[in-house]
Amino acid sequence: MPHTYLRSGIFLAPFHALEENPTLAIERDLELVQHLDRLGYHEAWIGEHHSGGFEIIASPEVFIATAAERTRHIRLGTGVVSLPYHNPFILADRMVLLDHLTRGRAMFGMGPGALVHDAKKIGVEAADQRPMMNQSLDVIVRLLAGETVTEKTDWYDLTDARLQLPCYSQPVMEMAVAASRSPTGALAAGRHGIGMLSIGGTSPDAMTQHARNWGLYEEQARAHGKTPDRRNWRLVSLFHIAETRERARENVRFGIEKFAQYFRDVGTFPIVPHGIGDAYEYLLDNQAACIGTPDDAIAYIQRLLDGSGGFGAILELAHNWADWPATQRHYELMARYVLPAFQGSREWRQDSYGFARDNSEVFRAQSQAAVQTEIDRLKARRPAAAE
Prior knowledge:
Blueprint: E1 7-12, H1 22-39, E2 43-46, H2 60-70, E3 75-78, E4 81-82, H3 88-101, E5 106-111, H4 116-120, H5 126-144, E6 149-152, E7 157-161, E8 175-179, H6 184-192, E9 195-198, H7 204-223, E10 233-237, E11 239-241, H8 245-252, H9 256-265, H10 279-285, E12 290-292, H11 294-308, E13 313-317, H12 324-338, H13 347-358, H14 360-386
Parallel strand pairs: 1-2, 1-13, 2-3, 3-5, 4-5, 5-8, 8-9, 9-10, 10-13, 11-12
Antiparallel strand pairs: 6-7
Helix pairs in contact: 1-12, 2-3, 3-5, 6-7, 11-12
């Protein structure tokens, strides 16, 4: 698939070390979204988590409503709402309100719930999470389309449920389903022809699984009369860049090991397995992350595009590997030097510069001739004026 434009964004879980002040950490997350808005990033997806101590945003909708008041352009998505944790009617109604409050900048990302210990706290078994997600998604799609739903399951009971407001976004707000190792997300997204959020890393092995999931998405979409569009596929990856590779490496020493330890201790699967002594070396050796320069990031994204067949948006996992100033600088370097390589924003300038450069001798001669003509014309008028 030829790509003329790749959208940019972040996937904000968030991840915050246990020794940090949580209030200040959440405030910094809001400041990050403001920073990205100024830099021209297209989207930010905000997670929902309720335990584990590291990912501390419990309601992406509340965070989005706050961030929307502080930003102008960036689109804000739930990344993702765990559908088994909520009544589908109440959740759909709440998301429609958010769509109106943000004037169409809200996006509805959903999934089964990543942390088993979150689900256990409200009596949801891990084996039930994905079937519950599918039940809820089917109802939400119908509600957002304006249907009246009467449906009873073992975890919700809807009687003549119909939303009192349509979406602000027409015909409906944008939706996407998280897809990782399980095929559930890809099948659900394809069935409804909505977006797919591929999480779980971008190592070569992970990319093989993501490509397989996209294939399932396309099959399901076509089987249900939908047209698959790779622009609706978002890929989450790991980056940190600086002016030099050495500086990038020093920057991530700030937090990369704490991030890796969280996934070993608490996360559903370890991004850096047990027994690995250096997370930085492991992620580089396995091509699971890009830690380097803007040129390294360009090459890394190009590899993902080539290996996947193409996708519509690259989302950077907001991981807090570096301290705050180096993190801000990373996103500035991405916006200034990396993302334009995939957005067609430099080519016209380069063509214009090249044309002017290649014809500079001709243009200089014409300019000098024009100036000399005016000088000669003035000289010709002066004798006449004297007479």
